[in-house]
Amino acid sequence: MGKNGKIRVGIVGVGNCASALVQAISYYTKNPEAPGLIHRRIKGWEVKDIEIVCAFDIDKRKVGNPLKEAIFAKPNCTIVFEPNILNGDVEVMMGPILDGIAPHMRDYPEDKTFIPADKKPVDVAKVLKETGTEVLVNFLPVGSEQAAGFYASAALEAGCAFINCMPVFIVSDEEWGKKFKERGLPAIGDDIKSQLGATILHRAIANLFSIRGIMPEQSYQLNFGGNTDFLNMLDRSRLRTKKISKTSAVTSALNNEIPSDKIHIGPSDYVEFLNDTKICYIRMEGRGLGGAKIEIDVKLKVEDSPNSAGVVIDAIRFAKVAMEEKIAGPVYIVSAFTMKHPPVQLPDEEAYQHIQRYLNGDGKLW
Q: What CATH number labels 7-194+306-359?
């Protein structure tokens, strides 16, 4: 049984990830025993207890429209697995653009890129307060450093927990972490892991090398996709923190460090017709007993946005629990479990075990 009441959530960026999240809330409200979740219940909280109470975007096809329509508007291209959205009448509001749109995005067809609305941004902190938002989820595009800082500050001002799903270092930054701690608010971040995506699969292979005594020599991870995330990342200047996040997530699983010129992890190209499908190629090379060569090549194909939304669903409920338990600042265990660049890296199995012990009444989230 879920608890009385709701987890009141705000969304920054009504793109493919938000679409998958909103669809999932309705889908699992109607089908609570359907497969696909990591945890059905987190300290009594179920997916049906999540309620989106506000949303912010900058695109004219979304701003001013109800969320249940905006999540299916272009340039969104993720799969539609739940077309009938429950409680989706909240209006998408105009947020500040800041550095949220890379200049090269203007060179692409309208149904593939962002079209800024000609509207004045709302007072975000005021909206968060008026709507009683408890948890603010950041889905901004990669490279939006100013915009991410703006929304983190708005969460602090409004008294919201903050979940940073993109690779700008907020929760893993000491100064930002201190701000949330001083304000008495939990923060989970940075850069969401997929449920079973490129990073967690690459980490699993790296961990296998480590525990089986294989000396890693070189590795790459190449990713292709056709959504606005991949189009946005064609501007390589926006990828500094993304590459750091993905690379550190993998190398932290190795006992022996690979030289920086022998490892390449990061987005590779935009392939328009793939839409929200992501294709990843992973290669790990190393040497075993007596220097014998070992090589692994893996191809992973996933629907990108539902893959990440499955983890956000857990992060939202853990953020609510952290608020109930008066946890302030970075929520270390949850961040290690859900994010690529948490304040403290842990092996995935160890983070999962900590989570399970906590859910069974033995352990802490920090």
A: 3.40.50.720
